[in-house]
Amino acid sequence: MQIEDVTISRKKPVYPVGPGLAKYLRIYQRDAKLPVCYRDLLEFTETVPVMDKYGNDTFWETPLYPPHLQDRLYDGLKVVYAILKASGNTKIVQHKIIDRIEYCAFGNTKPFRIRIINRLNDVYDYFYIKKADASRIYGLELEEILSPNQVNYLVDRDTLVEEHIVGIPGDVFSKGGIHTPDYNQTRIAKEFVKFNERCIISLLGDMRAYNFVMQITPDFDDFQFRIRAIDFDQQFYEGNPKVYMPQYFKENLPYVKLAMEYLNEKTVLQYQQEERSSIVHRVRSERHRIKDLRDASQLQELSTPGNILRLREGYAKFYNNEAYFNCRTMTDIVELNVKNVIRQVKL
């Protein structure tokens, strides 16, 4: 594994949801009619910076709304939460209040983070409202289909609502928790190898440590680890193959060092093969869904012609497979990645 400074485009356009994707979302019940849309949340008058407990700028801001608008937004956001979590059953929000709204002007989808609290016991939860970016939605769907993780989201025209993904931010974990004595370092390294493999196959880019979380589950004799992506803005847009390989980002150096220290070439290959086999099982069980997703994606622009040409050349070299030169879209490359995985598992 290697580390280098991989360049990421910070001006990726937000691609609107095309007719094919809209139809797909209806078929698989990802669409919804929401009482609050993204544009409604933009009607704030000013913002106040959000600082962390150490006084550092978090790059989130608290938007301030006129009182009459705030009351309407808060009531609507509770209904949005009920639709996301309980198919619209508002009984789950009878004792909940919207504690705060936060806004991040960075990132392609400029998200709003909503904190909702149960006033009976102070238990809180988060959810996000963002611009509906087609490539991000494809990333969420591929995460649902190709990874061991489930994602919960809804789309209403130009509004995307996402469930909060719980976990320790990857950069925080790498600084403070990765060397905890009770943690099996080999298990953490193994999970990073598997995560790296999933990103390469699904073309999920920019998986720096702050764009994924570490989920830790105590087992009867050890701790289990799962890395989960939380940012899908760079789903199959860039033309540099290394953008889709977390091992190359300098922010992931602690994980790369762990893998180099605790794994050898044979065990890395073993874990890569395990992940490929798991992907094959998921593809077989969701073959109709992934076909529908592929068909929907072929109907709209998701990257630039130059990026597609550059990436297919890079993957042809990476896999030593000239079949990539026949790919015309980013989803063609994903499809060929999956077909190659199926062939490898059969061998």
From TrEMBL:
Protein name as annotated: Uncharacterized protein
What highest taxon heads this organism's lineage? Bacteria
